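We were asked to recover a plausible sequence for a given structure. The inputs and outputs are reproduced exactly as logged, with field labels preserved.

PROBLEM: sequence recovery
POSITIONS: 136
GIVEN STRUCTURE:
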């Protein structure tokens, strides 16, 4: 089995994301539990993903919460990224809930950036994850 990551995103009364929580589940090949992993970059940003206690970030499609560093465009703000590859003709994309409804991507900012407002999610909490899907 592999690691599974789901992000719980909470929105305020205007539809602005106010909380991102990464939930990890699954087991690694060695039987260890999947855990929350993170790594900083040279600008103070932090990538957070679910993975095995040792080793690098996965190369296959997975969910990442990224917090911008002080030297970046949106200091301290979060965004969800889908990272890693899929078998052709699929693309790693963000989906909502068990029904796998695609979440629209902002071409410049990724998915559900903290600096944008989403009226359709006013006062809601949603669960999202990245998965391989065919492009339409």
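RECOVERED SEQUENCE:
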């Amino acid at each position: 089995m592999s690691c599974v990551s789901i992000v719980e995103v909470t929105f305020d009364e205007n539809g602005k994301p106010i909380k991102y929580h990464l939930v990890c589940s699954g087991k690694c090949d060695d039987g260890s539990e999947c855990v929350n992993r993170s790594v900083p970059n040279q600008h103070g940003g932090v990538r957070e993903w679910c993975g095995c206690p040792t080793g690098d970030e996965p190369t296959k499609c997975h969910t990442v919460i990224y917090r911008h560093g002080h030297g970046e465009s949106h200091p301290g703000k979060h965004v969800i990224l889908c990272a890693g590859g899929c078998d052709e003709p699929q693309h790693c994309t963000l989906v909502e809930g068990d029904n796998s409804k695609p979440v629209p991507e902002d071409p410049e900012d990724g998915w559900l950036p903290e600096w944008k407002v989403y009226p359709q999610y006013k006062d809601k909490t949603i669960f999202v994850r990245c998965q391989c899907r065919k492009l339409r």
